[in-house]
């Protein structure tokens, strides 16, 4: 019955482990997608900054040559407006990049947390498998004893392979003289 209970618990742990693995894969895909989006936003921001710098350079050139006439003044106003719009777009993109970076950090933390849970579940499953294997071996040994008993024969001796046997013991004596009273220590050797 205990073995059956451990097997049921092992099956439940395996199902939970599979669910966590699926979640972990989904989180990994979301992290990759966010990283791609972040990279494209960085590229766009860089292009807009280059465009803004080119506009500012042209604006400076126009200021130097403004005595040439009204056409240049109109172009100057247009460039000022373009620079203002580009600055606003860059500011907006920077805000979006910061937001995406926060999301990415949270996703990575969740992914690491999922991996930690997976490792813990793996350890629990390994412990349960060991216990089940031990109980199966113990059950088999008890079945053998029962068969011998029912057959009217003497049951075979219980396995003593792992039971320690004291070979000798002696008190330890300190190598240097001291005034302290030392406890009695037994050295036990185990036959293997």
Shape: rod-shaped
Number of strands: 0
| Helix-strand category | mainly alpha
Q: Strand fraction band?
A: under 5%
How do the SSEs run, as a string of H and E?
Answer: HH
Cα-atom radius of gyration: 39 Å
Query: What's the helical proportion of residues?
Result: over 70%
Q: Count of helical segments? A: 2
Major β-sheet, in short? none
**pLDDT under 50 segments (min length 5)?**
163-172
Distance between the termini: 32 Å
Mean pLDDT: 80
Please explain how this structure is put together.
With 192 residues, the protein is mostly helical. It is 75% helix and 0% strand. The protein is built from two helices and no strands. The protein has helices spanning 2-64, 70-150. Helix 1 (2-64) runs antiparallel to helix 2. The protein is rod-shaped, with a radius of gyration of 39 Å. It starts with a helix and ends in a 42-residue tail after the last helix.
Describe the protein's topology.
Elements (H helix, E strand, L loop, with lengths): L1 H63 L5 H81 L42
Helix pairs in contact: 1-2
Short description:
This is Tuftelin. The chain is mainly alpha-helical and 192 residues long.
Primary descriptors:
Tuftelin_GRINL1A/MYZAP/CCD68; mainly alpha; Tuftelin; coiled coil; 75% helix; 192 residues; 2 helices; 0% strand
């Amino acid at each position: 019955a205990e073995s059956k209970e451990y097997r049921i618990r092992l099956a439940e742990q395996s199902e939970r482990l599979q669910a966590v693995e699926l979640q972990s894969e989904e989180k990994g895909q979301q992290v990759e997608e966010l990283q791609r989006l972040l990279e494209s936003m960085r590229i766009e921001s860089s292009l807009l900054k280059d465009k803004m710098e080119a506009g500012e350079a042209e604006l400076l050139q126009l200021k130097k040559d403004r005595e040439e006439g009204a056409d240049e003044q109109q172009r100057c106003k247009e460039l000022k407006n373009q620079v203002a719009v580009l600055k606003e777009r860059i500011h907006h993109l920077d805000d979006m990049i910061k937001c995406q970076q926060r999301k990415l950090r949270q996703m990575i933390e969740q992914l690491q947390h999922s991996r930690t849970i997976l490792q813990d579940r793996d350890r629990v499953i390994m412990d349960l498998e060991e216990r089940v294997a031990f109980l199966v071996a113990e059950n088999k040994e008890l079945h053998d004893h029962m068969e011998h008993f029912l057959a009217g024969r003497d049951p075979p001796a219980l396995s003593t392979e792992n039971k320690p046997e004291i070979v000798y013991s002696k008190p330890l004596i300190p190598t240097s003289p001291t005034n302290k009273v030392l406890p009695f220590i037994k050295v036990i050797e185990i036959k293997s």
